[in-house]
TrEMBL record:
Enzyme Commission number(s) of this protein: 2.1.1.171
Entries under Pfam families matching the protein: Cons_hypoth95 (PF03602)
Top enzyme category: transferase
Taxonomy of the source species: Bacteria, Bacillati, Actinomycetota, Actinomycetes, Propionibacteriales
Coiled-coil segments: none
The protein's name in its UniProt record: 16S rRNA (Guanine(966)-N(2))-methyltransferase RsmD
UniProt xrefs under NCBIfam families: 16S rRNA (guanine(966)-N(2))-methyltransferase RsmD (TIGR00095)
InterPro entries: DNA_methylase_N6_adenine_CS, RNA_MeTrfase_RsmD, SAM-dependent_MTases_sf
UniProt GO MF annotations: 16S rRNA (guanine(966)-N(2))-methyltransferase activity; nucleic acid binding
Alphabetical UniProt keywords: Methyltransferase, Transferase
Length: 179
């Protein structure tokens, strides 16, 4: 079961895509992630969020629940995109679902985003993830924070133009924060 942890929709359950195509971020990891982000961003009020490889939309919707202004939720899988659309409609969230690949989405001008989540399937290579992060640079707000979630076994290095802020492992999951 995936749920919103805190904010105006705290405790609300979210639908998750059927099948094995997604890997939801655990509540424990999301709680820690959002505590770190609250510190790094100074809160979520007015923040514009981009959630790439959105799955159920849980990360972007959690940010909106905590006060973010808007979330763009990007998912290429049909079933997952329909699930995200249902979650957005059920919450009446200020969010837009984009059914397109992350690579294609970041290639077009957009933003500015203050907070970006990248939680790709573990099969997506580290080089592909770094390429997506690099393509984001022109669409990021000043002092934007980017969070990359990967397997603890797959090292991640920030591409040129980004600075690492911190990283932390939670069992099989590791989060990298950069700007």
């Amino acid at each position: 079961m995936t749920r919103i942890i805190a904010g105006r929709w705290g405790g609300r359950r979210l639908a998750t895509p059927p099948g094995d195509g997604t890997r939801p971020t655990s509540d424990r990891v999301r709680e820690s992630m959002f505590a770190s982000l609250n510190s790094l961003l100074g809160g979520f009020d007015g923040v514009r969020v981009l959630d790439l490889f959105a799955g159920s939309g849980a990360l972007g919707l959690e940010a909106v629940s905590r006060g973010a202004q808007h979330a763009d939720l990007v998912e290429s899988n049909d079933r997952a995109a329909r699930t995200i659309q249902r979650n957005v409609a059920d919450l009446k969230a200020p969010a837009r679902v984009h059914k397109v690949t992350a690579q294609r989405f970041v290639a077009a001008p957009g933003g500015p985003w203050h907070l970006v989540f990248l939680d790709p399937p573990y099969a997506v290579t580290t080089d592909e993830v770094a390429s997506i992060v690099a393509a984001l640079r022109p669409s990021l707000a000043e002092d934007a924070v980017v969070v990359v979630e990967r397997s603890s076994r797959d090292p991640f290095a920030w591409p040129e133009g980004f600075d690492a802020l911190r990283d932390k492992a939670y069992g099989e999951t590791r989060l990298w924060y950069g700007h």
